[in-house]
Amino acid sequence: MALLLAAVGTYGILAYVVSRRTREIGIRIAMGADAGSLRRMILASTAKMVAVSLLVGSGLALLGVRLLEGVLYD
Q1: Where are the alpha helices (DSSP H) in 1-74?
Q2: pLDDT tens sequence across 9-64
Q3: DSSP code of 31?
Q4: Rg (Cα) of the chain, in Å, rounded?
Q5: CA-CA distance, 40 to 27, in Å (whole number)?
Q6: How far apart are CA 9 and CA 21, in angstroms?
């Protein structure tokens, strides 16, 4: 279930990046960019967003675990 949720989240980020950069992608295609360079451009920006999300999520999860440990063992 967690893997499915992660996949849906990653797809959501990818769809957001593509929708935000649709005009830029169209201009790059019109100027002759190949599919590989477009793919790298989109995946690079998606990877950055996923990395930031992973760091923030991991930090919040660690904070939540420590908070709950304090509540459980007091």
Answers
A1: 2-20, 22-30, 35-72
A2: 889 988 998 999 999 999 999 999 999 999 999 999 889 988 998 899 999 999 99
A3: T
A4: 18
A5: 16
A6: 19
The tokens for 67 are 């908070």
Give the Cβ contact number of residue 58 at 10 Å. 10
- What's the token pair of residue 64? 């939540």
Whole-angstrom distance between the N-terminal and C-terminal Cα of the chain?
32
pTM of the model: 0.69
* Matching residue, tokens 């005009």: 23
What secondary structure letter does DSSP report for 33? -
Distance between CA 38 and CA 4 in Å, rounded?
A: 26
How many Å apart are CA 36 and CA 71, to the nearest integer?
Answer: 51
